[in-house]
Amino acid sequence: MSVSLTYPTSGQPLLLHSSAEQPRLGGSKTKGYVMSVLKIVALSAAMVVPAAAEAKPPLRDVSEIDDELYYIAVANEISEYCPTISGRRLKAISVLWSLRSKANQLGYSDSEIRSYVESDAEKDRMRAKGEAYLADNGVTYEKPNSFCALGQKEIQRNSAIGVYLKAK
Asked: Which DSSP string do the residues of 65-133 spell out, in sequence order?
């Protein structure tokens, strides 16, 4: 297709890629609008397909985040009930910030992270998991010393839970 560039003689302004003698290709403004909308729809669909294929699992299924939150929660419970063991709160806070950063890198927004952490269902699930662990290790709320025994064992093993605890 060749486009001749001539100067309008009738005082009409010259449009880019057109001349006074040639009508605009495409015929109508409606057809141009419809084509623009179709291009946008096609581009949007092309962007949605990869996003759907890369759907993120719920944060509860991301073990590197969920497990670490569990260890911190159990350590906190031990430090709350055992008077001779305290929690390493600064370490826990530091790890929590790095978990947030890791979740962001995995594509989770701050609001998704907040929803997960503040979810009553997730809190109940975490509590049930923690209470089962405590019961499996002979800990009862009626005997605070049982928390101390487990805490000491975790500290000595330098376990994932023990790293968040220290003896007073």
From this structure: HHHHHHHHHHHHHHHHH-TTEEE-HHHHHHHHHHHHHHHHHTT--HHHHHHHHH-HHHHHHHHHHHHHH
Residue found under tokens 């305290």: 86
Per residue in 97-150, pLDDT (tens digit) is 999 999 999 999 999 999 999 999 999 999 999 999 999 999 999 998 999 999
Nearest C-alpha neighbor of 22 from the set 53, 36, 1, 44: 1
- Model-level pTM? 0.68
Report the alpha-carbon distance of residue 26 to residue 30 in Å, rounded. Answer: 9
Please choose, from the candidates 116, 118, 117, 154, the residue with its C-alpha nearest in 3D space to the C-alpha of residue 133.
154
Relative orientation angle of helices 110-118 and 89-105, to the nearest 10 degrees? 130
According to DSSP, the residues that pair with 167 across neighbouring strands are 85
Burial of 113-130, coded b for 16+ CB within 10 Å and e otherwise, reads beebbeeeebeeebeeeb
Q: What whole-number distance in Å separates Cα of residue 70 and Cα of residue 60?
A: 10
One-letter amino acid for residue 133 of the chain:
Y
Task: Say which DSSP state 18 is in.
Answer: -
